[in-house]
Amino acid sequence: MRGFDETLLDEADETVRVRFVVNGSKVACEVAPRETLVDCLRDKLELTGTHAGCEMGACGACLVQVDGRAVHSCLMFAVQADGARIDTIEGLTESGAIADLQAEFHRRNALQCGFCTSGMLINACELLSQIALPSRERIRDALSSNYCRCTGYEAIVDAIDAVAKARSAGGAR
Questions:
Q1: I need a surface site. Which of 71, 74, 105, 133 has the fewest CB within 10 A?
Q2: What is the pLDDT of residues 30-81, one digit of tens each?
Q3: Which uninterrupted H or E stretch holds 154?
């Protein structure tokens, strides 16, 4: 191959060491510079609750919290999250931060196949951390970045609304 630069192949095989605090634990791993955060979480750290759906940031299945904000992990390179605090659905479940949301999703049958559920819960968690008692319209707006093929959304909105009201009334968090 005329003009082919073999250093390009070498650069393509390079990895970068990244460090995160994931679900409260310090971790380090080697990633390719163009590896997405969702792939790192799933493949390197075996945190498979974060789903790779559309890989374009449209479906919300890949949502995680990065430094306390919901982020589409399919749109973020792992190297961009170096040094960040990352909370996945596994971490939020283990800490109990979303126990009331999970219970209400279950009670209202606001999940079916479950593929979108982790992203919906991450989004609901962020919404309720910003607005204690959002309107149903605001809940729907927050969920507009999540795609669900099974539930029709109304049960999900009902679940989030019920948790917001319970929390505002001093119910369990």
A1: 133
A2: 999 999 999 999 999 999 999 999 999 999 999 999 999 999 999 999 999 9
A3: helix 154-168
Name which of 80, 78, 49 is nearest 62 in CA terms: 49
Task: Tell which residue, 93, 73, 74, 94, has the closest CA to residue 84.
Answer: 73
Write out pLDDT tens, residues 25-41. Answer: 999 999 999 999 999 99
Residue 31 belongs to what H/E stretch?
Answer: strand 25-31
Instruction: Compute the distance between CA of residue 89 and CA of residue 114 in angstroms, rounded to an integer.
Output: 12
Distance CA 164, CA 124 (A): 10
